[in-house]
Amino acid sequence: MSRTLTYGMVGGGPGAFIGEAHRKAIALDGSARLAAGCFSRSPEKTRALGEELGLDPERCYADYREMARAEAQREDGIDFVVVVTPNVTHYEICKAFLEAGIHVSCDKPLATDSAQGEELKQLAQEKGLLFMVTYTYTGHVTAKYIRDLIRAGEIGAVRTVMAEYPQGWLYSEDDCGGKQGAWRCDPAQSGRVNCLGDIGTHVENAVATMTGLKIKRLLAKMDVVVPGRKLDDNDQVLVEYEGGATGINWSCQFAIGCDNSLRLRIYGSKGTILWDQERCEEITLIREDGAARTIKRGYKAVTPAAAKYGRLPAGHTEGWLEAMGNLYDSFTQCVAAKQAGTFTEDMIDYPTIDAGIQGLKYVEACLESNEKGNVWVTL
Amino acid sequence: MSRTLTYGMVGGGPGAFIGEAHRKAIALDGSARLAAGCFSRSPEKTRALGEELGLDPERCYADYREMARAEAQREDGIDFVVVVTPNVTHYEICKAFLEAGIHVSCDKPLATDSAQGEELKQLAQEKGLLFMVTYTYTGHVTAKYIRDLIRAGEIGAVRTVMAEYPQGWLYSEDDCGGKQGAWRCDPAQSGRVNCLGDIGTHVENAVATMTGLKIKRLLAKMDVVVPGRKLDDNDQVLVEYEGGATGINWSCQFAIGCDNSLRLRIYGSKGTILWDQERCEEITLIREDGAARTIKRGYKAVTPAAAKYGRLPAGHTEGWLEAMGNLYDSFTQCVAAKQAGTFTEDMIDYPTIDAGIQGLKYVEACLESNEKGNVWVTL
Amino acid sequence: MSRTLTYGMVGGGPGAFIGEAHRKAIALDGSARLAAGCFSRSPEKTRALGEELGLDPERCYADYREMARAEAQREDGIDFVVVVTPNVTHYEICKAFLEAGIHVSCDKPLATDSAQGEELKQLAQEKGLLFMVTYTYTGHVTAKYIRDLIRAGEIGAVRTVMAEYPQGWLYSEDDCGGKQGAWRCDPAQSGRVNCLGDIGTHVENAVATMTGLKIKRLLAKMDVVVPGRKLDDNDQVLVEYEGGATGINWSCQFAIGCDNSLRLRIYGSKGTILWDQERCEEITLIREDGAARTIKRGYKAVTPAAAKYGRLPAGHTEGWLEAMGNLYDSFTQCVAAKQAGTFTEDMIDYPTIDAGIQGLKYVEACLESNEKGNVWVTL
Amino acid sequence: MSRTLTYGMVGGGPGAFIGEAHRKAIALDGSARLAAGCFSRSPEKTRALGEELGLDPERCYADYREMARAEAQREDGIDFVVVVTPNVTHYEICKAFLEAGIHVSCDKPLATDSAQGEELKQLAQEKGLLFMVTYTYTGHVTAKYIRDLIRAGEIGAVRTVMAEYPQGWLYSEDDCGGKQGAWRCDPAQSGRVNCLGDIGTHVENAVATMTGLKIKRLLAKMDVVVPGRKLDDNDQVLVEYEGGATGINWSCQFAIGCDNSLRLRIYGSKGTILWDQERCEEITLIREDGAARTIKRGYKAVTPAAAKYGRLPAGHTEGWLEAMGNLYDSFTQCVAAKQAGTFTEDMIDYPTIDAGIQGLKYVEACLESNEKGNVWVTL
Questions:
Q1: What ipTM is given for this predicted complex?
Q2: Cα C143 to chain center, whole Å?
């Protein structure tokens, strides 16, 4: 690659976990260099962080719209923007950068409803721009390996998928978990959904990405359990997939002892695959003999399309930042290829805006099912 | 105890897994001695097995009704009967022995519907007889320990219970799993239900026994998945308990790699308890600090009411037969106390006919929910 | 089999863990019936326990020598004796029964030195009697399966064996662990060795039985660690086997958190086998691809010579008593075959007196090595 | 910090695993910026990689001595050098940079013998320079947490430490593991030692760092096991620490199924700590009640001095690169403080040259013990 790409960030100010995580994930492989930012609503904070991060003060913007405009006009303007602001602002910000002709990487959820998502998709298509939605977990080498195993028919036809993502950090009625928790418990900031939007959509995306299954219809029960909560904190979703497979998606925020326990158990006609993102370095593959095989990232068995993302030999553990980094590895390669005129669709190995829209439709269908008394809703 | 109790067995002929298991579980602690039997529909097989087991040939019966009558009249007649025949015959056999005034231990399911169960209960009450339904898994020391922890409020109020019992042995469409599998796949022998009755009721019983929760209503999806099956082999049940807790009960017979994976995850307002019957020697207890504590049978932390059933020091593993043996330890103590006139209700530490009836009502409610299109059914 | 064998027991009085365990293990499969006993030095205690166990009072003996004589003369005399007394008495008691022509099952250690062991072996051979030393752990189905895998060359040539047996129950300097602990810490009762004789010999036996390796020489470090102890409570043994393999055997009694953690890791030129007796229902087999396969008792992969001892399907856990029961299953079959004149050496599938002698020689060599300053001692 | 530090690298050319790992670990947190390099013996390769990494061509050096001289003279010269060349060259390269007045981070082993190490230490002291030896594994947050727990007396006095580092990648006699393996098996490149120097020293360092124990004497058995090998590939070391604790250190390169299995089990008078670097996100802490507590990075229980290195919430896994990054976080802070004149010794939270020298002495003592027939050697 002749030159390192540059990117800008909207959001990710001091103390914002996810913004710093994106920066670290990109830095890890040096796949792009931060060159501009609008990190905070406070211009002072933006400037201070920009200085700390070595940015040209000129490219520390008080306003994201100004940033979009200015960067689009610069000869050395950013190649893509990373949007890591609170959820309700994603749509407007992404729109501004797309209109300015800048590729977008947006944290999930993409927007507050699927109509917004479709509009962004339309806009990206018109402008010929790439759009990544950072569902981090499918970036794990093992997640890609599972996708390849299932595509290759290694466990036969998928029959049922037990998928879940329990967390425990919001178990207490005393608080809503500090800064991170507060907005998630606040309808004004989170919209109509909390747990399902925050982590339930990761479940939906993980199943879709690894199994390739498409949801036909679902029946959701979205409960507000912890006293004082206003939005769902426990979501149970029965799913029927096209082709006849079924599944249960569960997400929860008060499961004491669970940190970030996104876990899939995929049962097929010829075998089973188990995956736990907190043990992201390995998968368990069970064939008809019943023996559970633990296969680790770095082993020869791992398919080349997955293995190529590994940085270290087996046993030298990679983790969450590496998964995020893998998304950016593919995304930046695609951005560079776009610029070089060599891009083809099959190069895409990251979650696109379609995954983001699918997540929004999933939430909308769950809300409808729940509001109607837990009835089946067709997607 | 002045004399060893004696028991008779109906069912449990050559090759019948469950009958032999009951015999071994009772022999383990010597809590009763086999003295009579009607092991098979074939009198020859009954006689042959009786001889092998050292029975008096006179007490090897061709017919269970005759056995009930004859044993009731003998001065040294059996103290209780163990019924381990195919499910559809339980009701008639139990009835015959109750009418003859003999205490009953019956394998689950108790009967084919709850009306039969209620009738048996009525009969047992009239006759002043004890009736155990052998839900083996709640016999584990760790299951009793969990019951005690929850009763004592150690994890606060239970909020949600994720319970499951996947097995894999009936995954193949080529066969129905041999002798054991055949009748489970055959409506004529199994009635309207397969997986849910066979293992789903263990899930219901385990949750009820350990948490003390009572089901208010449920919504069930009972699927026939493996091609060629006629009855359910994958059951997903959403549950609402009295008091507001919720849960999911899942049972499945085609989950390759799962053998006998009855597992409970109980999330409370102050902690979490994890239990896996295949790791029956330990529980995981998580308090608000998030640290997962593995506590083993044999440790001082285990409550006396649970610990008293242990036979061996921690690390000398006990298993499934010991769990069954624990049920019989309590049951035979109660039978002996009945005979000695010292029996009181609080001595009961085994699953009674009420648990059996509850299981049948659970199945009936699930069938109704499923047939009506997965709607809520109140119990 | 035309009749059930009968056995007598020396030791195993009230509160004695190991005697009751032997009785339960034998009762489990009904492979023999207890018919005589000298359970305690106190005739009263023997009589009381005999009554509880349903023995003929005549066959409750005050003295084991009298028991040996009397039982040998009875037409219905016991077929074998089970010796479960404190270690220092094993030799005299076994000798008495062998001289009376009665087969012997003796708890380990066989005797206090290998010379005694050789004498007993000589005597048993002269009398044509069977002699089992109850190394329980090699009775596990999975232990036998590992033996078969290694014999079949499944992991190639064994290169190194990491074997260990840490326990934690004697970690405190405040006590020596109650009744069980007291004699183990007392040279007068235990002889020159504590930890190594009690659990270190299980390590030696487990390695020998599963791998077939014979020790060529060893270097031992036997430490007295807990303040107040008089005998070894931590033993580190470097081992060289005939044929060039090496290994480390470690046993310890103050490893807090370890209950009964006998564990083998066997590294061969083509694969690895892991075994943990506290997870006795499974083995881990790793081939050159590195994938760790968990194979459970009850799976088709298990060799017939091992699988035949299983009582329950996979997932219905068996444990320590079943392992002990497996030893008695083979032993009683051999005793019956002896009586029927059909016995052949290849029927033996239990630890014989040779294993007992080997254990004593192992201890003697370790003591010699340790006393000489941790030097190599050839066996 | 007013400006980002810059560093140079010697070694780490195309395909060299460890050099790229250092670069990624530093980039992750942006704690320094690569500004100069002598990546390969081939000037072409150095230039090409320098270009790829965005270096000024002037600062891509054909010779490390020239680099040391030139960088020392530049106003914007590198703040420290990272030495990641083959082991035998470490001494000369480190010396050159120390003489030029440049701080050094050197991969382990520091040198080929401890005399060289002492000389480098002397030189660093004279020049007032910092010197890190990158024992990566002690950089894990959990390793630091264990250090703090033991210092605080949480498990009482350490009694015995079972430490090990088995790998499997060199199990085959067919090859020596490709490029990585070849030089490790070649005395000309590796010197007198292979496995013990490569991974055995990590064991020594991990025990020393986490427990604070100092080796008094040791007895080593260094075996050449795989046919065709010329240097040790299996090392068993008995250790006595000052104060009376003991331990076993085991390292192995042919343990099929082990990837990078550095593992410590630390048994104290009041508790036990278990650590497995492949599960580096958690520790197991066992107190006198025997319950095994799993505590994860990110939990409140983790001591502040350890927790401060974490980047992500619990459950968002960090791994090997983060551990390396943690070393550089401390090292670069110390370098910056040196420049700012605010440095104090207690700021050091990385392995210094003393750790490197200790590793060399450990290897030398093991070699002596082994050559003399596995006798005790005092350190």
A1: 0.95
A2: 13
